[in-house]
Structure formats: C-alpha cells, structure tokens
Amino acid sequence: MGEIGVTLDTHTEFLAGSQVLSIVRHIEELGFESVWLTDTMGREPFVLASALLSATGRIRVGTGIASMYGRDALAARQTRQTLSELFPGRFLMGLGVSAPFANEGRKAHLMSPAGKVSSFLDDMRSFQILSAEPETMAPVYVAAHGPKLQGLALEKADGILTWVMPAEHIELTRTRIGNDLDVSCQVPFMLDADADQARRCAREYLAVWLQLPWYCRSWRAAGFSDADLSGGGSDAFIDAVVAWGDAGTIADRVARYFDAGASRVILEPLRKTREGEARDVFHQADVTADWPALDVLAERLLG
C-alpha cells in the first residue's frame, strides 16, 4: 500500500494541548506516516504543526488544509521555509480556500477559488526570504476537487488534497492530471459493522458537506445522481465516501483508493457520541473522533 496518514479533525479543539500531543505521539508509535491538521476557528495550524514536530521524532505533519484567507502569501512562504529548515522532510503544507462558512469569522474579502489559489501560489513563489534556504523545501498541496483547481495544482503545486471523495473521484482525478502529482485523499471511517448505526453517523458527519454546491458537483462527476445526494445521501453514496465495517473491510476500502491512484490515504476515525460528550465546532452532535480505532486498524494496515 501507499502512505497512510491520520486527520486530526475539529474534535481535537475540545482537548487540552497535552492530550493532542499524546494522541500524535501514539499515532507515531502505531506507525502511521503523517498527521494532518484542519484550520477553523480553533488552534492556529502552523503553530500546532511546529509543536507536534518538536514533540515527535519521525511522523510527518501536514495542514489539510490551512486557509489562504487566514494568512498572506508572505507568511505562508515564511512558514514553509522555516519548518522545512527546522524539520527536514517532515512538514507538508496543504493550502486551500476552504468554505465560505469557515471564512465568515475571518471577515475575508472572498475571490473566485481559482483566482485566489492562482495568485496566492504565484505570490508565494515570488518572495525572497532572508533566512537560510533549506536543502529540501516542503511540498505544497492544494485542496482541489474540480478540473480548474486541479489544473492549477498541476501547474503550480506538488500535490492535491481531496476531502470525503469516493475512489471513483480519485480515478477521475488521475485522468485529468496524470501521474506527476501526489494525490492525498481524506477518508472518514467507522469501526462499526452495524450498517444502520454507521450510516446514521455518516449522514450526520456529511450534513455540512452536502450543503456545499462544489462538493456536490464533484460527487456528481464521480457518478452520483441528485437523488443520491438528497435526503442525507443514499446508502450507495454513504458507503462510497465513508468506510465502515470491521478492520478487514476498512483495509479493503483503503486498498481500493490506492488502486484508484491515491498516493496517500488520510484516515479520519469517527464514532457515534456517548451521552455527555461535547459537540464539535460544526455541531455534529452525534459524531466524535474514535482514536482507539486506530490501534485496531494499524494492526491490519501497518502490520
């Protein structure tokens, strides 16, 4: 198989920093290749990346993604160069425009996604930083589901990041961009063989994304109909974008993504919340992170 990472999603915002460090150290011990940080209204992802890199010895840390509306291109270039110098080969810079609801709190002046990505990446390249340039610069990944953004990534970046896309979308991506770029795909999973419970949890998790037209466009391009994307999503749609079942079933799903052309699968462990547990920042009352599931899956995937 290819490289396998783990998403540190918005549920970690409810944990103390020391708990987050402990989780990442354990993920490293299990043998996962990388952890990926999100960027909402919680911890600053590049600062957290620096802390996690300092607290570990091998695992790579990426931003999946840091919003281009959260910092300017110079700051992003400084971050990339600094972390590349201090942690050679271990930082992965994922950037994107994020979603409008995630940028509302930033009071950002929004541009077209393609315009923002293109100008931001051009500006990053244009700056000359005074500090010593590292031997190897961290790769830049762009969140890109559609042909326009994927074309920009092919021209100006080192890789593509996708979020909750089926394996069919990875195949479509490879037909667009060929094999020159890394394609890393985030895949939520539930270690739960109860179909009804797993699908209910998945629909709760996907409720936000199903409201976003550009996600729906990419799902349609991968072969799903309007009927599949209505009413919380058909069983076929849910099963295609959220892996659930026992460890063997989930391992097979991971293998399917690699067969489709993924360079890296970034797993997000989820489960149904228990009574008294906090909601996450998107108010998904019935979904939380399932860190112990990584132990079970690591045994199967990483052996």
User: What's the main sheet like?
Assistant: 8 strands, parallel, barrel
Beta strands, count? 11
| SS-based class | alpha/beta
Q: What is the mean pLDDT? A: 94
Number of helices: 12
Order of helices and strands: EHEHEEHEHHEHEHEHHHEHEEH
Q: Roughly how much helix do the residues carry, as a percent range?
A: 40-55%
Rounded Rg = 18 Å
What spatial order of strands do you see in the largest sheet?
Answer: 1-2-3-5-6-7-8-10
Q: Span between N and C termini? A: 12 Å
**Unreliable residue runs:** none
Question: What sort of overall outline do the alpha carbons produce when their principal axes are compared?
Answer: globular
How much beta, percentage-wise? 15-25%
Question: What is the structure about, briefly put?
Answer:
The chain is of the alpha/beta class and 303 residues long. The chain has helices at 17-30, 45-55, 73-86, 100-103, 113-126, 147-156, 167-177, 195-206, 213-221, 235-241, 247-260, 293-301; strands at residues 3-8, 34-37, 60-63, 66-67, 91-96, 140-143, 159-163, 182-190, 243-244, 264-272, 287-289.
What is the fold's blueprint, element by element?
Layout (H helix, E strand, L loop, with lengths): L2 E6 L8 H14 L3 E4 L7 H11 L4 E4 L2 E2 L5 H14 L4 E6 L3 H4 L9 H14 L13 E4 L3 H10 L2 E5 L3 H11 L4 E9 L4 H12 L6 H9 L13 H7 L1 E2 L2 H14 L3 E9 L14 E3 L3 H9 L2
Parallel strand pairs: 1-2, 1-10, 2-3, 3-5, 4-5, 5-6, 6-7, 7-8, 8-9, 8-10
Antiparallel strand pairs: 10-11
